[in-house]
User: Fold this.
Amino acid sequence: MARVKRGVTAHAKHKKTLDAAKGFRGRRKNTIRTAKAAVDKSMQYAYRDRKNKKRTFRALWIQRVNAAVRELGLTYSRFIAGLALAGIEIDRKVLSEMAIHEPAAFKAIVEQVKAAMPAEKQAA
Assistant:
């Protein structure tokens, strides 16, 4: 059986790592040992931050909905509780977009929520 030399595969693996390190500064972009460590760490950051991105956007949507609802005389928590009472199932992303781009439709939803809530819960 013929002997297998590994230069081709090693070169391909190094090239793949160095391509992933493109844009890094200093020796991290062109020295295989430091580039490999930097690329591995960057992948860890990317994995972690894909999760954090979801948290960040949810927080943003909640802030936007809260601001829009307060202009119409409710708080965020009462509004979300009222949505459940009114049987309206719209997620926070869509509520946020409606508050920005469709204020009339958003106001109609708030009015439905207010109608579904008991009177003592509305005034606070």
The radius of gyration is 26 Å. The helical segments are 7-20, 32-71, 76-86, 92-101, 103-116, 119-122. The chain has a mean pLDDT of 94. The first helix runs from residue 7 to 20.
